[in-house]
């Protein structure tokens, strides 16, 4: 199923997917899935298997990605950051930095770039290809993700489409588009060299969201803020930094994944900043030893080691020893996974946490308390056993359980919940995610029992 969702569009409460899998090499299993809540990927174009063949230009007799990449290049702009300096007693504008940006909403004139590109100055300009620089307004910036949003009066500049960075694999072909070293628009190519790269924060006290894509596509000075594009011409990330002793590309470039970029863009557009919140827990990554000691039937997740009093976590009943295995529509395999998720959730917005407590699978709905503030809406306890003491049903790497009794209004009462999805499994590759609800099998509705 193909759906184009503009980043400006309001987030939908419910989404439907169609997933096909072969059952015993005979029957076709069709799963119609309904998301129970708001996720970070709602402005991302779903993958379309089989649509894009290796491109061949018959007129020239060569393989080429030129048509797809040229389309993406039209969305990429140069960013000028200027600062005011005093020269001979008069204030003048002087260039502070030059980087790259990408148009994410053509109608609204919204351009995404890096926070470190816009930070050095107080005046900004956006320069589309073959056009003069246009004055730009800073809508918001977020140091924790190194992302910023500018607004300019753009004409005839298309917005780029975002692909889902969650389905990337090492070895995928990618292209970096930008303006390195002051040159005109430049494209470099490479592959995805690594995923989920972390540990680059300057300080342990610094709030960072780290889940970078690593690529060997050349990223140099001036490329910052430009898109990392897949072979379908859609952005999978925003290029942000390199590791290099010389300052030049050494094949170690890093990009912010599209799922994070889309989530940040949504908040910057709505609030002008990231409205982060507090849950009130301390975390560690679940180990096989701690899983055995706690008697939980999972081997990965975020283990709660402390629940602070009078916090949203305490109010909804989370306990020390609980293991968070899913949050929203995201699989949680470590403490860092969960921290990254929480740091992208707006305060006061209810989120669902999928928890294992001993032999039980539990669902909690909680709203984060604003940083430095009070809860403007009470944290709601909506704890409900998903599977009780009965084992979940397993299918192609996913486990299913009875649907929680506390469900999204209007979502319907039938179906079973996806309790866990193993990465790399058939279920994961077909698009199943934690918190999805299976409502039909072979086009036949199924109950909650």
TrEMBL record:
InterPro entries: Chloro_Bact_Ser_Proteases, PDZ, PDZ_sf, Peptidase_S1_PA, Peptidase_S1C
Keyword Transcription among UniProt keywords: no
One Gene Ontology term from the biological process aspect of the record: proteolysis
Keywords for the protein's UniProt record, in alphabetical order: Hydrolase, Protease
PDZ domain span: 283-359
Molecular functions (GO terms): serine-type endopeptidase activity
Domain of life assignment: Bacteria
Stated name of the protein: PDZ domain-containing protein
Annotated source species: Candidatus Entotheonella gemina
